[in-house]
Amino acid sequence: MKNTDVEPAEGRLGILIVGNGAVATTFITGVLMARRGLAKPIGSMTQYDKVRVRDNKRETTDNNGKETGKRYLHYGEIVPLASLDDLVFGCWDVYPQNAYQAAVYAQVLSKEDIDSVRDELEQIVPMAAAFDKDYVKRLDGNNIKVACCESHKSYETHKSYESHRPQSSLPTRWEMVELLREDIRRFREEKLCSRVVVLWAASTEIYVPVDKDVHYSLEALERAMKADDRKHVAPSMCYAYAALTEGCPFIMGAPNTTVDIPAMWQLAEKTQMPIAGKDFKTGQTLVKSGFAPIIGTRCLALDGWFSTNILGNRDGLVLDEPENFHTKEVSKLSTLETILQPDEQPDLYGGYYHKVRINYYPPRNDNKESWDNIDIRGWLGYPMQIKINFLCRDSILAAPVCLDLCLLIDLAARAGRWGMQRFLSFFLKSPMHDYTQGERPVNHLYRQHTMLRNALREMGGYEADEEMD
Predict the structure, then answer these.
(1) Up-side HSE of residue 111: CA atoms within 13 Å toward CB?
(2) Chain center to CA of 64
(3) Are the C-beta atoms of residues 339 and 293 closer than 8 Å to each other?
(4) What mean pLDDT is predicted for residues 79-101?
(5) pLDDT tens digits along 276-296
(6) Backbone φ and ψ of 437, nearest 5°
(7) Three-state SS at 145
(8) Which of 2, 47, 339, 399 is buried most deeply by CB count within 10 Å?
(9) Percent of the chain with pLDDT over 90
(10) CB burial string 377-405: b at 16+ within 10 A, e below
């Protein structure tokens, strides 16, 4: 590894996860098993992928004996990544079950695998969640933070509080922030963490449209939180605000608006913390962002792309609520337009029809199945069809993405990169971009991969040797 300006990954890295469901427990269990040598972290780019670097001071040769000055290195050989042995986990959840109980309930991993690290999983007990049922109507958990006195000066978790509790019992949005900050400080101290990353792996909230009067400045957002504006300030925004204020990078793994607002960008700049979002790119969108470039590169015309899914886990249950699905729909629909760019190729992509559907189907549990029907036109406008049927496992695909995002955003923080981390777009469905300045997101999978590799080269002290058109 070259000498770089990146601070070394010394000490424990705490990963605080919002949500203790299928994705979180699959992620945690996998890391615990991998570091005991019980399984391989397959799917994790930080553990397996290699990047080509050019080092003119080092003589390397190809098979013909020609000097190339090029090598292929694992990420950890280019930049100082945290070791799996140094990761320590905590979480918040509306249900009180520990990580072992939650993993068994999720039915993603075999009982044998879960039992192999049961001792560690049982030690991960969720803290009470900052929760507002109006944002996730299908969940009825009781491990939540509630106000317990008239002055709202002190709080406790009501483990047996009825699901029909009045909304007036909730802490205000600003009080939620303060409670979450206390949780982060306590976790960091108790677990002896030198650094902490906060990762949202919880349910999709109802859609919160960006409101310029509330979301365009940090001052306005703070004012709304203190006024307990529950319409414009989602609970997830309280988690993000608390994380950044406590010096923790924040990752939004759902399509929530949370950090996709100028106010949060300003907070990230003020605290000099990195943020990333939004929505883990795992199944259908991963395929779409990789396959759409084939159509575009080959200059084939697109008439329509219909995508549908069936999913039976808790995520599917939440998305069965129309208001929550709309948040996911906005995220999924953004992919094609930025890859194919209809305004630049109107003959090919000027009028295509794009539809996305998700259907709750309990028998499949976490084993999601997606179908894509793609209607294209070729030479002289003659029609053709492409069918893609992806039988995937949602949490199995999401777990390595969680690992990579946590390790890489921690790296970004130590490298002094704050604000939006565009180089992490590769892992996310709806990449962050400054829409207030007319910036377009990069959804093209191979361009995203170039951004990722070049960022690693830069942080590792190497020159970028790939260009992105």
Answers:
(1) 1
(2) 44
(3) yes
(4) 98
(5) 999 999 988 899 999 999 999
(6) -110, 15
(7) strand
(8) 399
(9) 77
(10) eeeeeeeeeeeeeeebbbbbbbbbbbbbb
Mean pLDDT of all residues in 34-42? 97
- Which residues, 6+ apart, have CB-to-CB distance to 142 below 8 Å? 94, 95, 96, 158, 159, 160, 161, 162, 163
Residue 17: closest CA among 91, 89, 86, 88: 91
State the DSSP string of 221-240: HHHHHHTT-TTT--HHHHHH
CA distance 127 to 125: 7
| The residue type at 123 | Q
Nearest Cα neighbor of 240 from 220, 210, 226, 260 is 260
Q: What is the mean pLDDT of the chain?
A: 90
For residue 88, give every residue at least 6 positions away whose Cβ sits within 8 Å of its Cβ, in sequence order, or none.
12, 13, 14, 15, 191, 193
Give residue-wise pLDDT tens across range 352-400.
999 999 899 999 888 889 999 999 999 999 999 999 999 999 999 999 9
- Summarised one tens digit per residue, pLDDT across range 297-306 is 999 999 999 9
Closest by CA to 432, choosing from 315, 261, 301, 203, is 261
Distance CA 266, CA 240 (A): 12
Q: b/e per residue, 303-337, with b = 16+ CB within 10 A?
A: bebebebbbbbbbbbbbebeebbebbbbbbebbbb
